[in-house]
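Data card: per-record layout.
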Amino acid sequence: MFDSNINDLFIGMKYRILSLRVIFLSLCIYGCTDYCLPPENVESMNQAYGRNYIYLTNISLYLTVTTLAIGLCVRYFKTKRFISLYVNLVSVGLPLSLLVTVLFWGLFLIDPTLVRNKELHDKGVRVNLLSDLCMHFFPFIALLFEQYDVKLKRETSHVIFYFIFCPTYFFITSLFAKANGFWVYPILDQLSFLGKCMLFGCSNILVWLFYEGLMLLFSKKSFFVISKSVKPQLK
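The structure for this 235-residue chain is written out next.
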């Protein structure tokens, strides 16, 4: 009787965890869609070159959604061939989503028009709190939850990725800024070229420090694997 109760407890836990993963994935998918933004914001983005695909928020969101989807496949559909890809995506995606969360909320609390269209903001157009959380908070929490049964390990290739991604993103957004006549985020229009370089450079260093800190933190933990059928431990 006791063994049966314990078994039922773990089965119930397994399905609750699955439900939570699906909820996180759904929230992040919602954050990727136009439905989470006011029509005025969607129209403004659609009129610009690059649309919403050049926003760091969306790039991080797409990476998060891909990671969560692959995680479900690895855990529940036993697609073990994707384990290595999945672990690498969690490793690089988690610090990047943390960077997005810190930068957005830090700037938003100082002045919303640093990250939002000032003209629309002055007209009273607002993004609701749930949408902002789906774009700038839940992705980090979702990836943080993903890593609890994954053995993450520091890799030099991950650090190289960040130091390639940030300058590349700066270069690409500068091209779209010339085409559109404005930068993807209003704060960049207020900065000189040197100021932009410093902002991107500091962001690059910050995401690297996030990565090093998270890898150090996770290396000190013992990880519990819910699904015994995925062996060895996700690493």
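Known properties of this structure: The chain is about 70% helix and 0% strand. The chain has one domain: 2-219.

See the next section for split statistics.
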